[in-house]
């Protein structure tokens, strides 16, 4: 099977190897199996505005396994958020198909398969931290006692137990992001969609949050689609890094990251030779086009 999951199966390869886009696009059409979290088949998205049409995505194929952590990276405007929004059922493809655990995004959303965390924490200012985390559960009719217990667990998980009764404005930006991540995990989603969730954080907080996210995902077994502009962040977090090019947005390369198992990714990894090798592989994949295509990507 020469689909994108092949790359996952090749995790034991000795060094990160950029997979040519042709092997990625050769995804056989067919029903997604139970081990497939996201199946994007030949998806294009054209926006029509008064100023004309923009092809945000063109013939994108991507299959993400259950429990897999995949990052999307590419220059500003290449369609990363658009792809995430299509998977999240916040918009519809112009052509092509998307399945989430073998169902349409709409059905998957209704079945509460998703947890979503975007760049802005998006907390409700009049609710306490705990009440924000409980919100999705409340909307789905979970009882008060169960909600409170779940929120307490999640706040412990993100290290904010002492702030449960605070309001969002009493927290730092990084703490608010952690609340948003706790909220996105409230319904034990099997798929987390994250669009630059750490974009506004300082480097230290960002690295701590990355380590925390790796731990959370190992604990919950959720598949993650993570949009970032940072190559080291993508490499640290992911089993595969999907590199996109702009106008029209396409997947140009998929870089398997051959680092420790997700559960064993600790800060030491950031100084490991394999980490630097993977960073280089992603950087080279990004620069595969003209230098201008790497604009807007943080290569530190
Ligand atoms: N609702 C919309 N209407 C019209 N055009 C849109 C809309 N949403 C996105 N686009 C266009 O689609 C293209 C891809 O946008 P998208 O937001 O997906 O990029 P991105 O890769 O997430 O960029 P960034 O890294 O800056 O967040 C851009 O050219 C953008 O102008
Ligand atoms: Mg975006």
Describe this structure in words.
The chain is of the alpha/beta class. The protein has a domain at 38-113 and 189-294: P-loop containing nucleotide triphosphate hydrolases (Rossmann fold), CATH 3.40.50. It has ten helices and ten strands. The strands form two sheets. Strands 1-10-9-4-8-7-6 form a seven-stranded mixed sheet, with helices on both faces. A hairpin with a 2-residue loop joins strand 2 and strand 3 (52-65). The model is unreliable at 1-31 and 290-295 (pLDDT under 50). Adenosine-5'-triphosphate binds at residues 47, 49, 54, 56, 76-82.
Describe what is shown at a glance.
With 300 residues, the protein is α/β, with parallel strands linked by helices.
Could you estimate the helical fraction of the residues in percent? 25-40%
Q: What hetero molecules are bound to the protein chains?
A: adenosine-5'-triphosphate, magnesium ion
Which second-level CATH architecture of the domain at 38-113 and 189-294 applies? 3-Layer(aba) Sandwich
Shape: globular
- Briefly note the structural class of the backbone: alpha/beta
Using the coordinates shown, work out and report the CATH topology of the domain at 38-113 and 189-294.
Answer: Rossmann fold
What proportion of the residues form beta strands (DSSP E)? 15-25%
| Lateral arrangement of strands in the main beta sheet | 1-10-9-4-8-7-6
Ends distance: 35 Å
Superfamily at the CATH H level of the domain at 38-113 and 189-294? P-loop containing nucleotide triphosphate hydrolases
By CATH reckoning, the class of the domain at 38-113 and 189-294 would read Alpha Beta
What is the C-alpha radius of gyration, as a whole number of Å?
19 Å
One letter per element, helices H and strands E, the order comes to HEHEEEHEHEHHHEHEHEEH
Number of helices: 10
Q: What is the mean predicted local confidence, pLDDT?
A: 83
Annotation, overall tally of beta strands: 10
Low-confidence stretches: 1-31, 290-295
Major beta sheet, specifics?
A: 7 strands, mixed
